[in-house]
Specification:
Length: 507
């Protein structure tokens, strides 16, 4: 990779800063807007209560990088809002390091501007940047590592590559395979050619990221007392899901991947004009990278195919698959489309007047960007996502009010059992009271009971039990709550507002 001077750095830095301010403006307006049952909030609570009686039955699958990063941020600031801001910063950094990967291989900075516009305006990336999507951090760490992969002769670059590959491997388990593929390519490109150099001892440092799966399992054991806690919890979710939706079949996986891409880019069919345009632009971008950045294309392709292969293996072994797991793949497509637009706009280089051809290039690029993202941005972002942020902010205000009331009612030295639904999240209660012990999610308990688990709840005799739920709950959850209240000696309402209720049951 060519060394960047100040001028080459300035354009991506300015673009990234503008995008960061844009995303952060929504957080300033609405406050923290993590969704109900957010994986981010759960990992923040895991991080804050680490090694201190963390609930061993699971709110969501714990991820070491998020636990450390979010837990530390919350410990320093005391607010989930700053954790939310991390995602706006991460989106801006993703844009910056994508620009570093593209460097000056594609003419003018049109590819930078197009990539930034697509990240800002595409619904899935906008939602991840503002609402908090763990795939964003995963993708950022990979992009940072690959940005420094171009010049591994410098020790600084090697260290940064190793550090961020380790961070990526502790963010999502699919990066275990991705990291192995990337490291294999690094060694293959260096030592397989006939003119290969002698083996350098410093290359042994690249073996460090390969140990991250072991580090993940050791952390599971240290924090949760189970070496394979994350795998056990993921399988538990899958069993609950399969109970409702049927068995996992391998031939369903391609349909799920296709559905994920269609949803991410708002496509109706492969033959739609937008789909054909995206495919053509992506192919042009990939061909351009093959010609100008062949090694980088190889490194970028490793996580693309590695992620799909990992989740296929996980799916056929009865692990849940969600379309958001393919966040890196969607960003790879955006990168290819950006380069494709920049390459197609280069036809204007042959125009005789310099300023005219630059104007034509910019106009052409803007027209393609608007065609690709204008309708999804207008319908999904402007009419759905942004109003959804405002509505979520209102819901969170009510939820946090209930959580504070519950925390204030717990007497010093008392060790109650708290049973709550997603409307008043376990993780938010744990953050407020400082421990996750004996904080149970009713949805999970009902699911475990349906599966025949006998140890899904501790003995309630002599314990104070708090029931926190939305009044609209019905079915098996309503029966579960009513059974707890029926067996209590005394039931007292400590919160009843905005459709939320908290009852203290003495036994």
């Amino acid at each position: 990779m060519k060394e960047w001077n100040i001028r080459q750095n300035l354009i991506p830095m300015v673009i990234s800063l503008i995008c960061c301010v844009y995303f952060a403006s929504f957080l300033v307006k609405f406050g923290e807007v993590f969704g109900r049952g957010s994986d981010v909030v759960s990992n923040t609570a895991y991080g804050r209560t680490m090694f201190g009686d963390v609930y061993r039955a699971g709110w969501s699958v714990p991820k070491p990088s998020q636990m450390i990063l979010f837990g530390l941020t919350h410990r320093i600031t005391g607010s989930l809002w700053f954790v939310n801001v991390l995602f706006a910063v991460a989106a801006a950094l993703l844009i910056y390091f994508a620009c570093r990967i593209m460097v000056r291989n594609y003419g003018t900075p049109i590819s930078y501007l197009v990539f930034a516009a697509l990240v800002v305006m595409t619904p899935f990336s906008f939602g991840a940047a503002v609402g908090g999507g763990s795939g964003l951090l995963n993708t950022l760490f990979i992009f940072i590592a690959l940005a420094y992969m171009g010049n591994l002769s410098r020790l600084k670059n090697r260290i940064l590559v190793i550090v961020f590959l380790c961070a990526a491997s502790l963010t999502r388990p699919d990066n275990w395979l991705n990291t192995y593929l990337i490291i294999f390519c690094v060694f293959a490109l260096k030592y397989l050619p006939k003119s290969r150099p002698k083996f350098g001892k410093s290359d042994l440092l690249f073996l460090i990221p390969l140990t991250m799966p072991l580090a993940w399992h050791l952390m599971d054991y240290a924090v949760f007392g189970n070496l394979f806690y994350g795998r056990w919890l993921a399988q538990r979710f899958a069993i609950e899901y399969a109970t409702k939706h049927g068995a996992f079949e391998w031939h369903n996986y391609p349909k799920l991947v296709k559905s994920g891409f269609f949803h991410a880019f708002q496509l109706s069919s492969w033959l739609s004009v937008r789909a054909i345009t995206l495919i053509v632009l992506s192919l042009v971008g990939i061909v351009a990278m093959f010609i100008k950045q062949r090694r980088m294309l190889l490194f970028l392709a490793c996580p693309f195919f590695g992620t799909i292969a990992f989740y296929f293996a996980a799916y056929v072994n009865e692990m849940l698959f969600m379309s958001r797991f393919l966040y890196y793949n969607y960003v790879f497509v955006i990168l290819a489309v950006s380069i494709g637009i920049a390459q197609l706009s280069s036809f204007a280089l042959y125009m005789p007047v310099k300023y005219l051809r630059n104007a034509v290039r910019v106009t052409f690029a803007c027209a393609l960007v608007l065609f690709v993202v204008y309708t999804p941005f207008k319908t999904r972002v402007m009419k759905s996502l942004i109003p959804g942020l405002e509505a979520r902010a209102v819901v969170l205000e009510k939820e946090n009010r209930a959580v504070r009331t519950l925390a204030e009612d717990i007497k010093p030295g008392d060790k109650p059992i708290i049973l709550t639904t997603l409307y008043i999240a376990c993780s938010r209660i744990a953050l407020e009271i400082g421990t996750g012990k004996d904080v149970y999610l009713v949805e999970r308990l009902v699911g475990l009971k349906r599966l025949g688990a006998k140890d899904y709840l501790p003995d309630l005799a002599g314990r104070t039990v708090y029931l926190a739920y939305h009044k609209s709950v019905s079915g098996s959850m309503r029966d579960f709550i009513q059974r707890i209240e029926k067996n209590a000696k005394e039931v007292e309402t400590i919160f009843d507002r905005d459709g939320l209720a908290i009852h203290r049951c003495s036994r």
